[in-house]
Amino acid sequence: MNFIDRDLSPILVNSLKVFPSVTLTGPRQSGKTTLCRHLFPELPYINMENIQISLLFKENPVGYLNSFSQGVIIDEAQIEPDLFKALQVVIDEDIHLGRDRKFIITGSSNVSIMSKVSESMAGRTAPLTLLPLSTNEILNYIRSEISTNELMFCGGYPKIWISPQNFRESILQSYIDTYVEKDLRQLLNVKDLNKFIKFLGLCAGRIGTELNKNSLAVETGVTNATIDAWISVLETSYIIWLLPPWSTNINKRLTKSPKLYFYDTGLLCTLLGINDDIQLKNYPIRGAIFENLVVNNFVKKSFNAGKKPRLSFYRDKTGREIDLILERPEGLSLFEIKASTGYNPDFFKNIRYFEKTFPDKVISSAIIYDGITSETGDPKAGIYNFRDLDKYI
Questions:
Q1: 240 — phi, psi (to 5°)?
Q2: 3-state secondary structure of 27
Q3: What are the distances in angstroms from CA 392 to CA 14, 75, 118, 379?
Q4: Residue 30 belongs to what H/E stretch?
Q5: Helical H runs in 75-223?
Q6: C-alpha count within 13 angstroms, C-beta hemisphere, residue 49
Q7: 368 and 294 in contact (C-beta within 8 Å)?
Q8: Predicted pLDDT of residue 10
């Protein structure tokens, strides 16, 4: 079986040297199980979706976990609500007796797992997130020329890249059919599937724009409360994520509308009805899809380092906007994202305005585009190709 090296691997290995367990969440098919079984082949593997395993666990939760002398990899942990309480008992006993067992817990529902972690596993587990492949991980695996359009169209699910190219579209459509439409529909108790599919398509068409729930409700034909519920589940299931606005006033950050992005551009393109990377070349919102790809790489960079992303965007009343702000301890790094392959000095216009408006807050700024990387070495005047992003953030 083909294995794609993941940037999270060192953090995952080192975390398990410090903690008795690791809790790894992320979307379905992002490679969580493959990564854990590759890095820890000595550990047995169980899947809580297996009915026989579920029955054995329910019969005696602590006893079942204690039957694994080295520890165990537990997949789809969110299915068993009592798992984390049992793990707490087992891990505390191991600590008391000086036993060195390792437990790796994986799951595809962020909220349901992390709420259990905060209740029962605080201080006993390292929470990590594995998202679909970053551009850096794809390029390191492919090691051949690949177009920007193909990177956007195919997205980052590992199965896409280890399968023959002509299967990529069917894999993404199958993901939508079996998970996005079926699983999410059941989870949300969606009675009108056509409205839910329309809602997904509307979200796809609004990437990189400020979220307008009222507009989504009107166009979908459902209530605002339904839109709230659907967005919440899409977030916790790692389908979409929301980028908050930056403001010097924390309260304003909470009240202003965030921008909407998809965790995977391949899934996004499929929802938009884009059939291949050639069609994508002239697609009306190609620039927004490119922006989604680049911003995702910032998110993945943070999670792959075991950190939560500290990202936001800026837009004032006059329409001046900074596409992405990375909040560092020492100050702000500003990024403008352009799908162009050619550089224009006007790309820096909004950045320079922000720097004058908030002169004590900015430590660096850069343009990220699809052209040639600047060789100036001056981070204040950086011009970077998005493929080289891993070197600069």
A1: -125, 165
A2: coil
A3: 24, 34, 34, 9
A4: none
A5: 83-97, 110-120, 135-142, 148-154, 158-162, 168-175, 184-188, 193-205, 213-220
A6: 5
A7: yes
A8: 97
Q: Which of 121, 111, 41, 130 minimizes the C-alpha distance to 84?
A: 121
* Confidence at residue 382, expressed as pLDDT on a 0 to 100 scale: 86
- 228: closest CA among 243, 207, 212, 210? 212
Q: DSSP letters along 251-294, please?
A: HHHHHSPPEEEES-HHHHHHHTT--SHHHHHT-TTHHHHHHHHH
- Quote the CA–CA distance of 375 and 219 in Å, as a whole number: 47
Averages of pLDDT over each 10 residues, the chain, 393 residues = 90 96 93 96 96 95 97 92 92 95 88 69 90 96 91 95 81 82 72 86 97 97 94 90 88 75 96 92 97 98 95 93 95 96 93 94 94 63 85 71
d(CA 142, CA 156): 12
How far apart CA 117 and CA 123 sit, in angstroms, is 9
- For residues 83 and 58, the answer to whether their CB atoms sit within 8 Å is no
Helix (H, G, I), strand (E, B) or coil at 306: coil
One-letter amino acid of 243: L
Written as six digits, the tokens of 323 are 């596409």
Task: State the Cα–Cα distance between residues 171 and 242, nearest whole angstrom.
Answer: 26
β-sheet with 45-47: strand ranges across? 45-47, 71-75, 102-107, 21-25, 125-129
Q: Are 201 and 181 in contact (CB under 8 A)?
A: no
What's the whole-model pTM score? 0.93
Helix (H) / strand (E) containing 241: strand 240-243
pLDDT of residue 204: 97
Long-range contacts of 311-320 (CB under 8 A, 24+ apart): 311/243, 312/243, 312/244, 312/245, 312/246, 312/253, 313/243, 313/244, 313/245, 313/246, 313/259, 314/245, 314/246, 314/354, 315/210, 315/245, 320/350, 320/353, 320/354
| Separation between Cα atoms, residue 125 and residue 118, nearest integer Å | 10
